[in-house]
């Protein structure tokens, strides 16, 4: 299975995108590094043909590195959803600068919006959800569950490797199929005042979840 561009080319395009100007702790806004996003997207396309000509949802899109990256790899159409107005301004500018037109950018609370019209609608749902730390305990699993509700095929999601056993348990409870398709290193730069280190190296899993019938 092939991709429309080489991995290094994709990473270069993603590095040119603007990130958060003032990240908001209540949304656990951390940027997905270009290298992580490129490897994740390239894996989805070359191993599972999950992007080219597919209907794609970028859930909690932030500046849009995953959704715009999917468009670079030939997605049929991308819907990008975020609760934060400032993040939506950044992804809108990024899409315009990248000359991406097959994207719909929507302000909505992904976990609480009226999404019945999207139930099992998207071929592929992409997300780098909040890790579920501080005041957002369990939000990562809520994102995964909603992603499954809205996909007719697969969900691809980035999670701390330390949560692997918990995710395996939830997958079993939900009656869906899931596996880690890539193990990555996330060099998280100090983003908020409470961060004591300049950067922190975090092991991250790229999960693929599918419905039993797929």
TrEMBL record:
Which CDD domains does this one have? AdoMet_MTases
Please give one Pfam family short name. Answer: MTS
Output one GO MF annotation: nucleic acid binding
Q: Which residues form the Methyltransferase small domain?
A: 48-136
InterPro entries membership: DNA_methylase_N6_adenine_CS, rRNA_MeTrfase/Polyamine_Synth, Small_mtfrase_dom
What domain of life does the native source organism fall in? Eukaryota
Query: PANTHER family attached here?
Result: RRNA N6-ADENOSINE-METHYLTRANSFERASE METTL5
Family statement drawn from the similarity comment of this UniProt entry: Belongs to the methyltransferase superfamily. PrmA family.
Q: What is this protein called?
A: Methyltransferase-like protein 5
Q: Which organism is it from?
A: Parnassius apollo (Apollo butterfly)
């Amino acid at each position: 299975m092939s991709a429309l561009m080489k991995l290094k080319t994709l990473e270069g395009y993603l590095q040119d995108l603007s990130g958060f100007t003032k990240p908001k702790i209540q949304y656990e806004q951390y940027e997905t590094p270009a290298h992580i996003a490129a490897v994740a997207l390239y894996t989805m396309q070359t191993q599972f043909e999950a992007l080219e000509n597919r209907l794609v949802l970028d859930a909690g899109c932030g500046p849009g590195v995953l959704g715009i990256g999917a468009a670079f790899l030939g997605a049929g159409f991308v819907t990008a959803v975020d609760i934060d107005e400032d993040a939506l301004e950044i992804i809108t500018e990024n899409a315009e600068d990248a000359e991406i037109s097959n994207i719909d950018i929507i302000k909505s609370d992904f976990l609480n919006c009226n999404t019945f019209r999207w139930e099992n609608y998207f071929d592929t749902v992409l997300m780098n959800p909040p890790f579920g730390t501080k005041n957002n305990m369990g939000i990562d699993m809520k994102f995964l569950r909603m992603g499954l509700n809205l996909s007719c095929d697969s969900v691809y999601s980035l999670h701390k490797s330390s949560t692997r056993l918990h995710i395996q348990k939830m997958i079993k409870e939900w009656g869906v199929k899931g596996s880690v398709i890539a193990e990555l290193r996330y060099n998280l730069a100090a983003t908020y005042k409470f961060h004591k280190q300049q950067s922190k190296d975090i092991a991250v899993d790229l999960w693929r979840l599918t419905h039993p019938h797929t």
